[in-house]
Design goal:
This protein is α/β, with parallel strands linked by helices. Helices cover 45% and strands 13% of the residues. It is built from 17 helices and 10 strands. The protein has helices at residues 2-16, 64-78, 104-115, 119-128, 132-141, 143-149, 156-169, 174-178, 202-206, 217-224, 263-273, 294-303, 307-313, 346-385, 409-416, 426-441, 444-454; strands at residues 54-60, 82-85, 88-91, 96-102, 184-191, 197-199, 234-237, 280-285, 321-328, 395-402. Strands 1, 4, 5, 6, 7, 8, 9 and 10 form an 8-stranded mixed beta sheet that branches. A two-stranded antiparallel sheet has the order 2-3. Strand 9, helix 14 (346-385) and strand 10 (395-402) form a beta-alpha-beta unit. It is globular. The chain starts with a helix and ends with a helix.
């Protein structure tokens, strides 16, 4: 109750000084402003230590700190898995080429992209096991923030971004990420008016005639995890009508007119090119459009034209195996409410309804992704040997790391009923991190991959 009162006082005082503060969110610049720092294109983020015969992509879901801890556990277990690829010794984590992340999973992905194996030295202490939620509340209600919060252009998400930058990212931008050896990190949010995914990489910013080079990593992660109601939208400037951006090759021909699958991407790209109607882009939590990070992978491949085109741009057109590991930290509503006669509280009702809808949407996404894999296999086979099936066929392995698949019923219930917040108890953090190894070990698809790798 005391915190609620302090929050109310903060809001009242902030409203009294609206317009007085000059605080302003970061403004992404035009692409023609002479920026010297390197751009961040996903296909350029490759590492010499990775095998050309194997493409490994990870997708980290949303789910607050549950997702952060589970995705961190996946990285931890992957570094312990030894591989022998064509006589070259490596480990599974070294072979990761791309990580697509949403919401809570974006903290893990971004920190790993910037720091590599150093994530195992301090990320747990700095973030996973820290009470981030308490710190954010303290920042928002701190008198030191009242003046800034009085600005129309500085809100709760700016407070969160500043805090994430202080604790984790230390001023890092996408040009800093571009200078790391890989893997490529695709941080995803949701365009509030289009309802589609918005990925933080230079190709997306090209459509807006903007540069991502100096864009703060902390601000991208904030957009990816900006839950509606709790956080404010993250706003970007759009200059899309001011230049002629480099577009996918198929947009310069009639290919898209003949392909129903490409039509949505044409509309999406053109929506960013029209800055007269959309001079500002407002972003919220990536889970609104894609809570698993899988649709972002499908979008990336589709915008390139075909899977064969995407592999060619990644420089691995002859790869033999593609592994996709998706973490799903979705919660499950407590069934105990069904034992009570009185109606559930408003908070429980909203939380349960959201959880159920996300779970259903996740199932639909996985079904769609599996169908897409079949299409990718056909596209690559046709490009390689002119027919649908040939000896040089591409093998896919889709591995799901989901809390819903935990065998032990008591442990599954315990972990799935952890609230979607930014704080964990010790037992919760331990359970989530350890669950990653257990779930990977029981995966039949992972066992198939390891067996095929030896043959």
């Amino acid at each position: 109750m005391r915190i609620l009162i302090r929050c109310a006082i903060t809001l009242v005082l902030s409203s009294l000084i609206v317009g007085c503060s000059s605080a302003h969110f970061f403004v992404n610049p035009r692409n023609d402003t002479g920026i010297q720092t390197p751009p961040y294109y996903l296909e350029r983020q490759s590492s010499a230590r990775q095998s050309d015969d194997l493409l490994v992509m990870l997708a980290f879901s949303g789910g607050g700190m549950r997702a952060t801890a589970l995705s961190y556990g996946v990285l931890d277990v992957l570094r312990e898995i030894e591989l022998d690829i064509g006589g070259a010794k490596s480990n599974m984590l070294n072979e990761v080429d791309l990580i697509s992340s949403v919401s809570g999973g974006s903290f893990t992905a971004a920190y790993f992209g910037l720091n590599g194996y150093r994530i195992f030295d301090d990320f747990e202490e700095k973030f996973v096991r820290a009470n981030i939620e308490r710190q954010l509340i303290k920042k928002v209600i701190s008198p030191g923030r009242w003046y800034d919060l009085g600005s129309d252009y500085y809100d709760r998400s700016e407070v969160a971004s500043d805090y994430y930058d202080k604790v984790l990212f230390k001023g890092a931008t996408f040009s800093d990420l571009a200078q790391q050896p890989g893997p490529a990190i695709l941080i995803n949010s949701t365009d509030l008016t289009l309802g589609t995914g918005f990925g933080f990489h230079q190709q997306q910013f090209d459509w807006m005639c903007s540069s991502i080079a100096d864009f703060p990593i902390s601000r991208a992660v904030t957009a990816s995890s900006a839950v509606p109601g709790l956080f404010s939208a993250v706003t970007l400037f759009n200059y899309g009508s001011d230049c002629e951006p480099q577009l996918p090759h198929w947009m310069s021909s009639d290919i898209w007119r003949e392909s129903p699958a490409l039509l949505p991407y044409t509309k999406k790209i053109n929506a960013y090119r029209n800055s007269v109607e959309r001079p500002y882009i407002h972003l919220m939590d990536g889970g609104l459009a894609d809570n698993l990070g899988l649709r972002a992978l499908m979008d990336y491949f589709s915008i390139k034209g075909t899977a064969a085109d995407a592999l060619s741009e990644l420089g691995i057109e002859n790869t033999k195996k593609i592994v996709v590991i998706v973490t799903d930290a979705a919660a499950a509503p407590s069934m105990d409410i069904n034992k009570r006669k009185d109606p559930p509280s408003t908070f429980f009702t909203v939380d349960a309804a959201t959880t159920v809808q996300i779970s259903l949407y996740n199932q639909e996404t996985i079904k769609l992704f599996k169908n897409t894999i079949n299409n990718w296999q056909e596209q690559v086979s046709l490009a390689r040997c002119g027919r649908m099936f040939c000896k040089d066929n591409l093998e896919f392995y889709f591995i799901k790391i989901s809390l819903a698949d935990i065998v032990d019923e008591q442990q599954r219930k315990f972990l799935q009923e952890i609230p979607t917040t930014f704080s964990l108890e010790k037992a919760e953090a331990d359970g989530l991190i350890n669950a990653a190894g257990d779930l990977l070990g029981q995966s039949d698809e992972f066992k198939r991959f390891m067996k095929d790798l030896k043959n």
